[in-house]
From TrEMBL:
<protein>
    <recommendedName>
        <fullName>AbiTii domain-containing protein</fullName>
    </recommendedName>
</protein>
<feature type="coiled-coil region">
    <location>
        <begin position="215"/>
        <end position="252"/>
    </location>
</feature>
<feature type="domain" description="AbiTii">
    <location>
        <begin position="3"/>
        <end position="184"/>
    </location>
</feature>
<keyword id="KW-0175">Coiled coil</keyword>
<dbReference type="InterPro" id="IPR041304">
    <property type="entry name" value="AbiTii"/>
</dbReference>
<dbReference type="Pfam" id="PF18864">
    <property type="entry name" value="AbiTii"/>
</dbReference>
Length: 298
């Protein structure tokens, strides 16, 4: 009989082993050792994330392009507001790892991501000739997600062995289980970034922590913007830009675990527009409130 942990290391180093099989085996190890963070992470990777709160390696940057029917190809789309463009390029991959692998194995080298309807509507209105718009990503970006997962499992398995936790004869001894509970295995140390909204408290496998961000403050700012947007004397383009970002922020807040990166880019764009209104007391007051929110989002 072999060792659960050493076998996991071998599987992680063997690219011919399907990533789903590797994750299931990692889940078994985490379950047997009662390492809650890795139980949750492997489950989410196998079954998909229910909202936009994903690890950093699942946040990618696409290219916004328009389809030119005359030439039958995608062409770059450029916007005056570079910060707005940057926010729009952000893509959050929530699909189960098996779906990601399926996409990688398709014949197309470039894949499309949906753009929220409110944003697409705004973009079409800014174009002289309305064309189909999409966010394009490469298969190599999806492959990086799979590689990040495989590397995380390998690093974790190596750390388990270094602590004397090997799982000989396909089981863990009482001492190994106790040792696993005495060592803190923070998932962010292995995935190189944030942990799906940081809902799991560091250093404890059973406790949770709430977001430090005050959601009610964000909702209040959004309502203030919606109520006074007609009083800000904005040109039509800037007004639609703010409305599109408000719609995106509201869409994020409708999720129980919103994505801070997307929210931050929305409010940065709104803040930049408001900074251009030099003689507005209303814009200045709202700008101050947005600054407070941005400090929490970084």
């Amino acid at each position: 009989m072999g060792s659960l942990v050493r076998d996991l290391q071998k599987q992680a180093m063997d690219s011919s082993i399907p990533i789903t099989d590797l994750l299931r085996n990692a889940y078994v190890v985490a379950k047997k050792l009662k390492i809650k963070e890795f139980e949750k992470w492997t489950n989410l990777e196998l079954n998909g994330y229910k909202d936009n709160n994903v690890p950093d390696y699942r946040i990618i940057q696409g290219q916004i392009k328009a389809f030119n029917p005359l030439y039958g190809c995608w062409i770059p789309v450029f916007f005056d507001n570079t910060k707005w463009t940057k926010a729009l390029q952000i893509g959050v991959i929530t699909q189960a790892i098996s779906e990601i692998v399926t996409l990688i194995n398709t014949s197309d080298e470039t894949l499309q991501m949906e753009i929220p309807p409110e944003i697409e509507k705004y973009l079409l209105e800014t174009m002289e000739v309305p064309l189909k718009i999409a966010k394009l990503i490469s298969k190599s970006q999806l492959q990086k997600i799979v590689d990040s997962v495989r590397n995380a499992v390998l690093e974790w398995a190596l750390d388990l062995e270094s602590e004397g936790i090997v799982g000989e004869d396909m089981t863990f001894t009482k001492e190994e289980k106790q040792l696993a509970q005495s060592v803190t295995y923070n998932i962010q140390n292995y995935i190189g970034g944030s942990v799906y909204g940081s809902q799991i408290q560091q250093g404890s496998s059973h406790s949770t922590q709430s977001q430090t961000l005050n959601v009610n403050d964000i909702k209040d700012i959004i309502e203030s913007l919606k109520n006074c947007i007609n009083d800000l004397e904005l040109n039509e383009k800037d007004k639609k830009l703010i409305e599109a970002n408000i719609a995106t922020a509201e869409l994020q807040l409708s999720s129980p675990e919103f994505n801070k990166t997307i929210l931050r880019e929305c409010f940065k764009t709104i803040r930049n527009v408001l900074e251009g209104i030099t003689a507005s007391h209303i814009a200045a007051k709202i700008g101050e409130k947005i600054d407070s929110i941005l400090n929490q989002l970084f």
